[in-house]
Amino acid sequence: MHNILLPLGTSIHAESTLAYTIAFASYYKSTIYVIDAYPAHSTMSTLANVGALLQEDNIKKIKALVAKVVPKPSKIKIVSSERDLIGTIKNLDEKIGLDLIVTAPLNNEINDEVFLGRIAGSVIKRTNIPVLVAPLDKEFSPPKRMLLAFKTGEVKSSSTLEALVQIQDKFNSKLKLLLVKVPGFANRNHHISDELLKRSSKLLYSSNATVYQGVLEHFQANQPDMLVAFKRERGFFEKLWEPDLIYKKDFYCTVPLLVLKNKD
To answer: Pseudo-torsion of CA 87, 92, 93, 99, nearest 10°?
Structure first.
């Protein structure tokens, strides 16, 4: 895991998210690329001059924050947005290859009803890079128990599991699989990849209206300290991931959330 991207806002949670990312990256000796998470599509940024001034101000704040958390940030690079946030991320990925995006669930939003804000939602929905959502104001702790929930464990490409494999191997994490049988999903589609079965210690089953309800059913009993999900083009949480904003009433967890990208 060589290159990690961190979209960083200017909220009160920015410092803890940066510290979390640095702690995680230290285990891999990764380079962290910090990018201004200011939503370029917001109303204010439609005025070019205002947007440029805000971005310049944010970059100064980010540089000051990095200097505060890491006085000699040899493995941290600050990236300026060449265009919109997602366009810049895709361009950077093409140039250097990004292995993971770490993001806070919220960046500049102030809304107690929202779990994932526009930045977290957009990098999950609009990129092909795995995403680790870091809980607000918590220190990184190596995960010992991981729970991967899905309605089909079919994996189209071995690269889909790369982030999961690297985290599990680095921290010797115990992985449990949760297959959720949802209405209208044929049994023949309940395929699970051999790689996942080999890596798991237990396969759990649940019958629920949604995968998320299956997660709620098994969360307390298994107490994972990292939740893992697939983001498919069509499939797991398909309606959940459609909007960039994700509300707590639809999905919420207090542990790190690793989202793997799996194309159908």
So the answer is: -120
